[in-house]
Specification:
By secondary structure, the protein is mostly beta strands. The protein has no helices and seven strands. A hairpin with a 4-residue loop joins strand 6 and strand 7. The chain is globular and about 35 Å long.
Length: about 80
């Protein structure tokens, strides 16, 4: 499901470790695809991650250091 919500992401050594979404922490258990792209002068990092129950696609806007949750689905 596509979603556009601001989230907080905890990082260790430039790697996402948890996501706080709607007041709940989700520990990241696996990192899949990581890519980046530039739009104008802004660099974006996109991570596909998995917690115990959810798949999430996260985007970091490096110009304002803000994270967005772009997509979410249940882990089957």
């Amino acid at each position: 499901m596509e979603i556009q919500e601001k989230v907080t992401v905890g990082m260790v050594n430039s790697t996402p470790k948890y996501v706080n979404w709607r007041g709940r922490n989700y520990t990241i258990t696996k990192i899949g695809l990581h890519h980046f792209y530039k739009k104008g002068t802004t660099l974006y990092h996109v991570y596909s991650v998995i917690s115990e129950t959810l798949f999430m696609r996260l985007k970091l806007d490096t110009s304002i250091l803000s994270w967005n949750l772009e997509e979410i689905s249940d882990v089957v």
